[in-house]
Amino acid sequence: MATAAPTPARRVSRPAIPHRFRWPLGFAVAALLVFLAYYYLIPSLGAGAQTFFRTWLPLTSINEALVWVICALGLNIVVGYAGLLDLGFVAFWAIGGYTAGWLMSSFFYQVKIDFLGSALPTVPGIHLSFWLVLVIGGAFCALWGVIIGAPTLRLKSDYLALVTLGFGEIIPQVFTNGENVFGFNLSNGTKGITPIDPINIGSTKLGPFDLVWKYLIYILIAALVMFISLRIREGRLGRAWLAIREDELAASMMGVPLMRTKLSAYAVGAIAGGLAGVAFATHISGVLPDRFNFSISITLLAMVVLGGMGNVWGVTLGALILAWVNSTGLPQFGNAFNAQFGTDINFPSYNFLLFGGVLVLMMLFRREGLLPESRTRLVLHEPSRTDMEALGADMEEAAPELDGEKLAATVGPDESR
């Protein structure tokens, strides 16, 4: 009797690019295309096309959006990874900015320190290299993250949010009123610290119009923060953060040191805030206290929620969208609308109305964000307790044998126990 020939096994088609590398490669390709467009393509276009890009996609707005991305990724570590609601993250942005103001300007004219700086040799003050100030700013903010977090992270939920809100209000007010702190000028008050030394790459100094090269620097900083966020999340510390976010009591019972783990999340997030502050100071060539108000903390939190808490790429997308809308999209749309209909509506003044409406819609229809983390998507879409009870009731109606009294009558009172 002839036997059938064995069927050949099917080959499972694997994607050419692994899933974990798709977003990093996409980010790198997009960053490279933007650089090539603004360095080569756009300068060779006609006047109309150049006007369009200068109006709707100016490079200065893209650079500022990248600074927002850096800071939002830091807040994502605190809120998205560890589940600690922070309403005062602007404090670390301000500390990083003033660190750049102190170490890259003539503010402390009483001394003269120059280490690989970009200022002239005859200029007094402290002038350090931008790259060294980045490290110092991140470390200084990490220290303040531990100082601020040590007395506050023992609290939970709403109480933690209120205390971080208080620190977020205290730090900018210290800089606003820091012109005379026991006779010492700490921050120059409302006048701020200007100008900031330009970024130096070797012997080359980037001027105010070298936006393309500043874009490359901000992209590298953002990529570094992304890499750190992704690598830490996969490690032991990142898993401990996720455990605390999901169930703090269960995490403590499994041996996770709660206070130390929370402090590490606060410190790592503060480092990203410090890097963003230093980058922002060089972006606007100064440090002004009115640029560090409470609304920045709310905008950063909106970026994290809109993009998807816990997802690096979702937070990046949310930060880019909201930063562009806030700086360029709303003003330009308002100008076009007013010119078309002859009105005089100040559209940028309604930015928080727009953001609030978007957040309400997101909470109603897509709570997990634009690009949600897989774990967050499962948690938010699992049925609630009442839904499970209703499902159990439907199963009992469909299968009467599951009813307790009928089962006891069938098998006897002793066997049903």
Secondary structure class reads mainly alpha
Q: Could you give the order of the helices and strands?
A: HHHHEEEHHEEHHHHHHHHHH
Q: How many β-strand runs?
A: 5
How many helices? The count is 16
Cα Rg:
27 Å
Portion in beta strands? under 5%
Q: How would you characterize the largest beta sheet?
A: 3 strands, mixed
Distance between the termini: 57 Å
Helix content percent band: 55-70%
Spans of at least 5 consecutive residues whose pLDDT stays below 50 are 413-417
What would the average pLDDT be, to the nearest integer? 84
What would you call the shape? globular
Strands ordered across the widest β-sheet = 1-3-2
